[in-house]
Amino acid sequence: xxTLKLDxxxxxxxxxxxxxxxxxxxxxxxxxxxxxxxGCGKTTTLRMVAGFIEPSAGRVLIAGRDVTTAPPYARNTxxxxxxxxxxxxxxxxxxxxxxxxxxxxxxxxxxxxxxxxLRLVQLEHLAERLPxxxxxxxxxxxxxxxxxxxxxxxxxxDEPLSNLDAKLRAEVRLEIRELQQxxxxxxxxxxxxxxxxxxxxxxxxxxxxxRVQQVGSAEDLYERPANAFVAGFxxxxxxLAGTLEGQGRFRLDKGALVPCAxxxxxxxxxxxxxxxxxxxxxxxxxxxxxxxxxxxxxxAQTEYHVDLDGTGILAVRPTPPAHDPLRRLASGDRAALHxxxxxxxxxxxxxxxxxxx
Length: 357
Known about the structure:
By secondary structure, this protein is an alpha+beta fold.
């Protein structure tokens, strides 16, 4: 296995910049996800690592070797594509062994490695089948085996779960993570799905408009977002505009005075995760009493949209038992809100839409 280093990686198409100065070090055996909305540059970055796109500037180093100008087959990377890209006329075993055949690996060794790769993904009994005879999840496993069979220094995954249904996505992502950890694969994973990234990654790289917004663990990004984009993209978040008004107090634009972290520095956005907001039926006057706009039952959780003096705030709580007064809260009722001051972080303003979630 090896390490991966991206050094000032850029990609321009004429006057348009798709990726701007991406610097990243991926340690041996680490699972790093590139996360962001469509068009943010994550797939372009991955394809520059794979050698399918030539960088406009910067370098790609694998295991300390500069491979920036090397063709894909000379980089020792294994890539799984979003569309699987299986050869329809080849059997499962032939698909998996194709990369070895191109590398002139002898028949006996090739057969052994193909069997081992199929065993890893639990498909050795389907080696003679054609791709069209497989389910979507099985085709995905064939694509994984094909990438793994060459013993890549770096494992590249380009939204490999996007064609699977929700239940199968959850199963396959767990299998990929377990396989990656068992084999110690240095992995770069592209996704726009925050749940996938949070569940699978050692670290995440959040991209927007071709630029890195923040790099860190799932906890870092969720608990300590660097800016409003990260706060809003990684999980749901109340982003409330206003101004700091003394230690631990934040005045919302619509007038309400709410608590924030006592050590908060000046900022014009208050970031508050919905699950940190406690809500109870209002029994009297209070500093943070608003009107319920809607209540959405989601099984284990319930969402409460509350209007606080003209500012919308989302609270997400475990669904209360039937006898709890909160269970009877409905649209139009008055509700009291509460959160610990430390849960409300202040962020610098940016040009994002700050409408409530």
